[in-house]
Amino acid sequence: MTATAAAPAAPGVRDDDLLRVEAVDGGHGSTAVLFGVSLGVPRNGLCCLMGRNGVGKSTVLQTIVGLLKARRGRIVFDGDDVTKLKPYDRARAGIAFVPQGRDCFPQLTVRENLRVVQEARRDLPKSGIDDALDLFPRLKPLLDRPAGFLSGGQMQQLAIARALVTQPRLLLLDEPTEGIQPNIILEIEDAIEQLKRTAGLSILLVEQYVDFALRLAERYAVMDGGRVIDAGDTAGLADGHVRRLLAV
Prior knowledge:
26% strand
């Protein structure tokens, strides 16, 4: 990684943000999806990225972690330009990604799903698994159960716990409440609240459940048609403002 000079900040992006996405174009293969996307994630804070289905939110996350290439613009993490780094180098730098769909190894037990992450990163402290389980105590009695036999809510908690084992500085969450029963949504919200109080952790949350997202976030961004159409602080945000944008 190489240090970069700060670019002029776009709305919703500040020079001291842990993550800055600066005027990024991107997409899938020959299909353009993102057009000049800029957003920032504050240090030790949470930014919620909202928008209707198909506007490019997941593509933004996949581009940040390097699964998709940025065709133009920059991705700056803690002052370093990571735009051309491989996904595993971004992970080692401290970026963790929980994709939509609650990916896990269904044939492995909950314990093995957590251990495989730790074994892949020998530099990680041994306390990572215990720390992750403390956030999701429902998983503790299920450690010997194959992940494929978990409920949707339990699997989502496991997916987040697996990412936390890497002890990231930036956590990307793609619609963690999708298809989850209400009581588990509250547990996930509580866990995210605890994570926000963890020193050194920032979160970029993609979410369509507006109340859930805005309760957690200090910063928001709204996408439509592959562009960020509005961004700013959630403090003092007018009631219904985001809902009106999502209805466009």
